[in-house]
Write a structure and sequence with these properties.
Layout: H1 5-16, H2 20-48, E1 56-60, H3 61-65, E2 77-85, H4 93-107, E3 116-117, E4 122-125, E5 131-141, E6 147-152, E7 156-158, H5 163-174, H6 179-190, H7 201-210, H8 218-235, E8 240-241, E9 244-248, H9 253-272, H10 283-294, H11 297-300, H12 304-311, E10 338-346, E11 351-354, H13 355-360, E12 365-366, E13 369-378, E14 385-391, H14 395-399, E15 404-408, E16 416-420, E17 425-435, E18 438-450
Parallel strand pairs: 2-5, 12-18
Antiparallel strand pairs: 1-2, 3-4, 4-5, 5-6, 6-7, 8-9, 10-11, 10-13, 13-16, 14-15, 14-17, 17-18
Helix pairs in contact: 2-4, 6-7, 6-8, 8-9
Length: 451
């Protein structure tokens, strides 16, 4: 296959991946509208003598999985699960959604369109293209003191608001954090023509996970994966929920049409990429083939200066996004205290100092120190589980493709986590205490390192 990986990587990073600023904007809109909803519910309660209260919320969909892609029209979905205690809501799904619509109307008067009552959510639309979907859930505790959830659709149905995100994060880990890249690229193809009617993002994600083909080169990995998807769809177009294989993700007749469209268009446009495997393929022919596939101006606007620019581009743009967030994994109800500290050992002098004391004095760490993070104090009743998160920040972490950020349990001694100061950056460590499947306490300590 013709090696156009330099330009393909540039296309991916500059035109597929959503920028940090835009991602931050989506999360800010999420927070803003949750506060609007809470405020609207407060007004509703005061007027109607009720006590409806959001007890938890979870970011879902492409924002939670970080598979959202760039879009000139800014038609971005922000999916948020809002969770109530079961005995705090009416039994009827219509009545429940009407309460949310009423509460939002009280605080969203500046919107051009009123909140929409949808089958599976309540939707807020921004004039610039964003929309926020509030999916409503209720929860109860079972005999094991763990929460069980139901989603408010046409009726109340069992559904865990975190299950799909957990599934994707696990699949992405198993595939060396490469799955997310392939999903983003398939999404770019599926929305490359405005008139196309294609399957939704979850269906695309499940297919990518199912038929994923790992390669060192991103262009080869993407090609081999979508070719396997096309071959699979020629045989079988059914797609099931990855966390409940008794549930099809194709719910209406239009979904069957979407699957047929995806199969046919992959077949057509993979054929246009066949030039990449011919001996006389040139860079110009390869770019033309990818232009036909993605229908994106990047491929038709390539010039010599851009090639030089991509050659000199900082490697830091190609690190894997491995960071995880505790509220995507378990519910968070911070009811207890937790304080962590760290013993900093200088191997030369054998001196041991407390990191908290160093930070109070404005000191930073240097390379070559041994770090032992531990729980200094907590009032969480035992038993409980302890999880850690080590996040490397800064240019060197990105250049080394070592931002980390995964949430893990130290099986050897779960209340202690050993690290070392390897390279410069404003790093940090977080600790989470999980009891009965809920994060009940957390703490964070900064780990600033300089050469």
């Amino acid at each position: 296959m013709y090696d156009l990986s330099s330009k393909f990587n540039t296309f991916y990073k500059d035109h597929v991946v959503l920028s940090k600023d835009e991602t931050k904007r989506l999360r800010e809109l999420k927070d803003l509208n949750i506060e609007r909803l809470k405020s609207g519910l407060s007004d509703y309660n005061e007027e109607n003598g009720t006590n409806y209260k959001i007890v938890d919320y979870v970011v879902q969909g492409s924002v939670a999985m970080s598979t959202i892609t760039q879009n000139d029209k800014k038609d971005y979905d922000i999916d948020v699960a809002i969770i109530f205690d079961k005995d705090n809501l009416p039994d009827g799904t219509t009545a429940t959604k009407n309460i949310i619509v009423d509460a939002l109307k009280r605080k969203c008067g500046q919107f051009k369109a009123e909140p929409e009552f949808k089958t599976n959510c309540v939707r807020l639309k921004y004039a610039e293209g964003y929309h926020v979907d509030f999916a409503i859930y209720r929860r109860t505790k079972n005999s094991d003191d763990e929460y069980e959830y139901e989603h408010c659709g046409s009726e109340w149905r069992p559904r865990d608001p975190r299950a799909i995100t957990r599934w994707f994060r696990d699949e992405n880990k198993k595939k060396d954090y490469k799955l997310r890249k392939v999903v983003r690229l398939l999404k770019m193809f599926c929305k490359s023509r405005d008139y196309w009617i294609m399957p939704g993002g979850l269906v695309q994600t499940v297919l990518c996970s199912e038929k994923f083909k790992s390669h060192d080169r991103l262009d080869e990995m993407f090609y081999e994966t979508i070719k396997a998807i096309k071959d699979r769809l020629l045989e079988n177009k059914e797609v099931y929920n990855p966390v409940d294989d008794s549930q099809s993700l194709l719910l209406i007749q239009k979904d069957d049409i979407r699957m047929e469209n995806l199969c046919n268009r992959l077949d057509t446009y993979l054929d246009k990429l066949s030039i990449l495997f011919e001996e006389d393929c040139t860079e110009e022919k390869a770019m033309e083939a990818w232009k036909e596939f993605f229908n994106h101006s990047f491929w038709s606007n390539q010039v010599v200066e851009e090639k030089a620019s991509s050659t000199n581009r900082s490697v830091s743009q190609y690190y894997y996004d491995t960071e995880e967030y505790i509220d995507d994994i378990v519910p968070v109800e911070l009811k207890y205290k937790l304080h962590i500290d760290c013993e900093v050992t200088d191997e030369r002098s054998r001196t041991i100092r407390k990191l908290r004391n160093m930070l109070l004095r404005g000191e930073t760490l240097t390379i070559g120190k041994k770090l032992k993070f531990y729980i200094d104090y907590t009032n969480v009743p035992r038993p409980f589980e302890v999880f850690w998160k080590v996040r490397n920040c800064g240019k060197i972490a990105e250049d080394k493709d070592c931002i980390r950020g995964q949430i893990f349990k130290n099986v050897n001694n779960q209340e202690i986590n050993n690290e070392s100061t390897d390279f410069e950056g404003p790093h940090y460590v977080e600790c989470f205490i999980i009891k009965n499947g809920v994060c009940v306490a957390k703490d964070r300590i900064n780990v600033p390192i300089k050469n």
